[in-house]
Records
---
Amino acid sequence: MTNNLHPLGQSILDRAEALARFSDMEGGLTCAFLTPAHRSAQALLAQWMEAAGMQVRTDAIGNVIGRYAADAAAGGDARVLMTGSHFDTVRNGGRYDGRLGILLPIAVVGALHAAGIRLPYHLDVVGFAEEEGLRFKTSFLASSVLAGRFDPALLARTDADGVTMREALAASGLPGNGELAALQAAAVDPAALLGFVEVHIEQGPVLLDKGLALGVVTQIAGSSRFQVRVEGQASHAGTTPMGMRRDAAAGAAEMILLVEARCSAAPTLVGTVGQLQIPDGSSNVIPAACTFSMDIRAGEDGIREAAIADIVAGIQQIAARRGLSAHVDRVRPVQNAPCARWLMDQFGAVLRKRGLPAFELPSGAGHDAMMMQRITDVAMLFVRCGNGGISHNPLETITAEDAQLAAEVFVDFLRHFQPQG
Ligand code: HGY
Ligand code: MN
Ligand code: MN
């Protein structure tokens, strides 16, 4: 289905569609870490990278990394500009979240290669194997390996079927068989990096509302995730008077409303309970336990931390008043990640040269760039999200025209890129 007006953009959309055929579910796109669909997506990305003129390798966590080698004139000690994003998805997700940031650079490298153009630095395109945390409730798993920040405790973490991450890696045939030493050795040398840039669908309505195809990200909001377990007492649904109940689910409901109310109290602050369970619940038994997830984010770490302190204290107060107990486990938080002004300005200059505004906006969603920001300067280019800006949803969409423009801007960025002086 070639769109002659926007051939590069259309080819990116076509590839996103082809990649989305590998799914863990029927009738939608779910691509969780190391499932057969995930391995197939990884193999296809590697194939496309090779066809575009890159040397490809797969690392110990399953990242697929294509290198478009520097111009011979750059010499043997050329440094690396890295770009990329993730190819795993949320459950029943969209086909561009993450994948656009791999497919677009592959298309751009393919065009440079076909035109015989080399860059004065190595360009590494990374398909990060895992960012969403669907299978092992992790955050930024694959980029944490590349950034040398892998948490060894994760190897013992189990998925919903009781398979540990170590077992899943060992069974995968990936280099290193899930050995910690191999995961640690997969870290990149920060001294070799010139920076990390990520192209990503905006996943919100800002660019759409402004009538703009592209935006430059200023910072990526920090986030904290929690697992909460509320415990009460099981008893008979028909005979226990309302005033005598210790209902874990009713307590959890009040706690969820507290998250909603407290996170409505500051502009960039957001709070979400996306998972809620009554383990072994029965329709005629008062819930003895209820578990839920909490995801809290804000544009400033202090605002997020203040909200968390209030919410955790509030959860304990609700539990005490209702005769319940509550255990709040905090998953490792991710701090707010500012983008580097010198890289943002280079995207801005390219946009302005094309007569486009260098519009800047913060990211409320998390990205691989957050983890890479621990070891190198980062920047992000956002591409307009259609359908009201909806994402983490199959309705997520972009146009071939916007993808084309983003690819052209990315080419200009790469060709004019100046390392920090
Ligand atoms: O949750 C996030 O912000 C990201 O999409 N994983
Ligand atoms: Mn996502
Ligand atoms: Mn993403």
Note: The first strand starts at residue 55 and ends at 58.
---
Amino acid sequence: MSSCHKAYITTPIYYVNDIAHIGHAYTTIIADTLARYSRMIGLDTFFLTGTDEHGQKIEESAKARGKSPQEYADEISATFKNLWDDFGISYDKFIRTTDVDHMKGVQKAFKVMYDNGDIYKDVYKGHYCISCETFFPEIQLVDGEFCPECGKPTTVVEEESYFFKLSKYQDRLLAWYDAHPECILPRSKRNEVIRFVEGGLEDLSITRTSFDWGVKLPAELNDPKHVMYVWLDALMNYVTALGYGTDEAKMDFWPARVHLIGKDILRFHAIYWPAFLMSLGLEMPKHIAAHGWWTRDGEKMSKSKGNVINPKEVADAYGLDNFRYFMLREVPFGGDGDFSQKALIDRINSDLGNDLGNLLNRLIGMSGKYFEGRVDASNVTKYYQTELDEVEASLDKLEPLLFEMQIHRYLEELWRPLTVANKAIDKYQPWTLMKEGKEEEAMALNGLIATILAKVSVMLYPVMPQVCPKIASALGFTIDNASWEKLIKNKRLIEAFTIEKIPPLFPRIEEPLLEQGKPADTKEEAKKAPVKKEEKKEEGVALIGIDQFFQTSLKVGTVVKAEEVPKSKKLLLLQVDLGEEKPRQIVAGIKEWYSADDMLDTQVCVVANLKPAKLMGYTSEGMLLAAKDEDGLCMIRPEKPKKPGTPIG
Ligand code: MSP
């Protein structure tokens, strides 16, 4: 089914519980670069992106905002699509897991796996992290409770569930990794996966009954209380987008050339997904490529710190192509990267301005001054064969680097021809050549520089799709498959042309163009409580100064009303007197240990300056202090009664 003339490239589908940030933009921009490159060299290309809209996390996020999951998913999915459209991302399909065809395809896949004996019904008992939408065996939990991936508390789940026989595929998976050294990129990540699988695979719970927002099981199974596990639903998008289970016309794009993902979701893609495919009798993807994590100024990005980078703001301020170049050049694929405006400005001024932009300006200057703008490369081989050879040697290395996801090395190598060009001007000095009456040689030098710029702009186009066509147009050609064939594949020189003067492409940037600490509303908070990278850690928690501690307002309160939150196993709804005009409403997850009656008229300790949050539709205006260990949870209370509102500290 597969054809080497086809290139199917995918991004992860993004959860709609959050709006797009730099991490999402990074994956999408890499995928866009690969898709553009594939099209340019004439591959029949299909580039897929989209949104992941089911699951408990989305259901809860929607509820917290008082919206239906569908309404909420529609809204956030549109923000992703709009951003990619704004960024000119060249996707061929934007899939949503709420698309009817996708859901039909997932049901079909479930049925196929069920019919071939890979799915059975049992009871799942274990821990679930809603934030990561992942089940964890007890042994992997931190302190027996917290998610090993994100650190949030997990919930204990005991419910009837269908299971996928993942354990059955352990040996076949290991054989696949073994036979395909490049199936997981970077290769070091493949070793991690192999070690994990060798450690033993447990069967995977693939349905849930405790919530509703998901794809139902196929009608034939007659089991309406189950919805599919969000990862089964989500991973299937890679084939349902090609029509799996509905109109299979595009299935000849399968297998994917590359699934681009972040390292945090490697296990799902490198273990579960191939096992599902094996069960479905479909081919394995060629590559699963996992990139690293972006931080900001050395810190992890999070909404609470207010340091999340909005990719649109950066692109608007610095230029979309500059931002694309920076992200792809700055970080070795697979490694973690740090975003700072300083690093971005350095890349723009140095690589783009000095090396590339100035070269074009020098060419415009030389051609204008000596040849009325004419450039003719006919005699380049006569005078500058050594330089040309050097350039071609670099260009030859590029394509494999790109398809091996060594994009930073691709760009590094692509800069060598620019160095050759800049050095050639300094060495041969067109002004001296002209003075000595060596006009032919000077024109050939012009031709060499123009040829180098042309070749570089073609190969840089996938990364900088707005700027490179401008360079090409100044050099009298258009970037497309035909010019790629001539200049790159057939290693030809640029045809004679008259250069067009264009304004500088990369004006120098002297200082940061964005205020630090965006987004604006959380800027002040971010400044107040910076947790510096180098600060010491105490049991994995950063040490803070006393001033930071005092930013938390802790107060004694009296519970004046207590009731149960309807339909919730965990939550109580409390009104707590903090000595203010009216009691605060606090939603507390303590019902497993305290009844509403237990809480009424007791005193509690309250974090009083938390931003209000919505839980199960109720606004919570504070948090109670409690201590929890294996014996359960107990409230932290003042030893003697204190006036409501008494500060703690
Ligand atoms: N919905 C799943 C993917 C399902 S694919 C079948 C999901 N979504 S996500 O929105 O949480 O994350 C999508 C991608 O963004 C992941 O590849 C993740 O690695 C990436 N990033 C999220 N934050 C990131 C950074 N700070 N830096 C780099 N990429 C990160 O997971």
Note: Residues 341-371 form the longest helix (31 residues).
